[in-house]
Structure formats: structure tokens, C-alpha cells
Amino acid sequence: MLEVRNLFKAYEDKSLLNDISFTVAEGETICLLGASGSGKSTLLLIIAGLESSDSGLVLFNGLELTNTPPHLRDFGLVFQDYALFPHLNVNENVAFGLRMRRIRQVEIDERVATSLELVSLAEFGNRKVNDLSGGEQQRVALARALAIRPRLLMIDEPLGALDRTLREDLLNELRMILHQAKIPTIYVTHDQEEAFTIADRVLILHNGEIVRAGTPVDVWANPQSAFVARFLGLGNLLDGEVIAENRFQTQQGLFTVECDHKHSNGDKVHLLVRPLATDAQRELNALNGIVADMIFQQDRFKITLENGFYIYLKEAQEIGQKISVQVKVECLA
Questions:
Q1: N or C terminus: fewer CB in 10 A for the chain?
Q2: How many Å apart are CA 54 and CA 57, to the nearest integer?
Q3: pTM above 0.70, yes or no
Q4: Over the stretch 207-229, which tens digit does the pLDDT of each residue have?
Q5: Structural domains in the chain?
Q6: Can you tell me the distance from the alpha carbon of 314 to that of 317, in angstroms, rounded to the nearest whole number?
Q7: Alpha helices, DSSP H only, in 182-262?
Q8: pLDDT, position 30
């Protein structure tokens, strides 16, 4: 098991990582999700041993790794730019790390074959990597990392250079590959769709801090803060003021919200208005406005109101029409 404990890192008096702690269990895939500059790649480099921290510990199976050089950590790395050798064929690229470890040729051949079969490239061994598509090259890079049988696999923005269709296909394949390999994995991305598809657990980074951690289902259902809700695009955000127990006044009117937070009258809060229409018999709150725009998205319409809020409906609406839709509202404190 990997354990990251109280990591701090600053550069030119700017904090890059601030008290980062988490674990990665055997066979678990966690995703570090955040915008550019949030500290994701710096954290990955520290774990890999390619960058030092100012303080804190990185441990694997209880052993501290501060003085362990990168090549002795037995961690695999996969990057966005693939880092393949263009003068070598697929077999030779996958075998490169094994040859550097002076493994016997018979075992090299077996590991290369097994790794390529795992990424569905068993028949591609003799091809030049420059003859492969972007998705195929990324799978070769993954096979090379898997071939060394790493104790931990780290994948940094692997799909950023691919088009949308190819990215979606490879993402689904990658999740199955990681589960089959059963190697603890840290997956770094700025793309929430990638994170929620591939991860067993999501860690959202912002300004060098973990602001939310949990399973994809848990994080989506309970973002816990306005920043996380906004970052994930979970819905409309409202500033509210507590006027009574579970009663909140906003610019959009009065909302009744069952809230577990301890508030006093006059407290300022953030409310999340989910964009999906819900059962009017269960919800007491309505989002009101005049339709300003409408976009068809797969099996529903995204309706944008003149006040800037939006809602998803199955039926088309007329521009300029006044609507009132029952919605789910949550208090984010």
C-alpha cells in the first residue's frame, strides 16, 4: 500500500502542495483531479522520486522512500506524450525497461507478450510505433509500464492528446486493464469524465490542497463545497441567507432545504440547485424564469433562463416562455 503523509512543497515562496495525505490500497485506482496548477503533477513527481518535498513522507508497505532513488522504487510511469522510441518496434519498446534491469531474454519475451495481450496489441509486436494510431501508441506505453510489474502505476494525463471518440474508447479499455492487472494506480487528469469513469476513489485538488475525497458516487452526490460543485458542473449555485431553520432567502426567492449543518439566522450559505427536474410532490422548491436559449443534448434539452440558470427537460420549450420547474436544492454550507 502507498501512503502519502503530510506532504508540503513550495517554490519561490508559493505553496504548491499543502499538507497532502492519502493512501492507495492494493489493486485500487485513485484519481487526482484538478485544474492546471492545482499541484497534481508535482505530487506525482514527488511520489516517483523525481522531485523532493519540503517535508512529509512517502511510504510503500510501511517503508519510507525519501532516500530511495526513482529506479529502485519499482513504480511505473505513463505520460501524455507516450515517450516511445521511434527507432524501435513495439516489442522493443515494451522490452526496454526489462533490458535495463538485465532480465533474462526468455523472461523478457514472456513479459512482453503478456503485457501486449493485456492491452489488446498481441499482434502488433513487430510494427514500428510511428505506424500506430495515438490510442495504440498510448497502449504500448501502458504495456511498457506494466511489463516491469510495478508495485505502483502512475498515469499522467494519458488521453489529453486524443480526439473525443478515441479517448472514450481507450478510457473504457484502460479501466478494464487496470482492474485485470490489480496494480495500485494513481491516475492524474483535469477531466472529470475521465476521473469518474476510471477511479475507485477521486481526490480533488485545488491550490495544492485536497478539497474533496471519496468514491465517484459519493463526491457527485455530496460535493460539500461550492468550489467542488462549480468545478464539477453539478448545477446552479446560489448565495443564500438563513432566515429560519431549513429556510433560506436568495435572489431567486425563498427555498426550503433539509440541512444537517448547524446554522444561525443571518448566516450566509451556498445553495446548489440541481439542473434535473424532479417530482413536484416530493420537492418544495421551484426554479422560475424566462427561457432565453435551448440546446438539444442527446435525449434531453438544456434550457437556459434569462437569469443565467439552467435546467434539463425532456420536452422542448419556447424562447421567451415563462417556466417554473420543481428542483432539488442542497445546502453546501
A1: N
A2: 10
A3: yes
A4: 999 999 999 999 999 999 999 99
A5: 2-226 (3.40.50.300), 235-331 (no CATH)
A6: 10
A7: 192-198, 216-221, 226-232
A8: 96
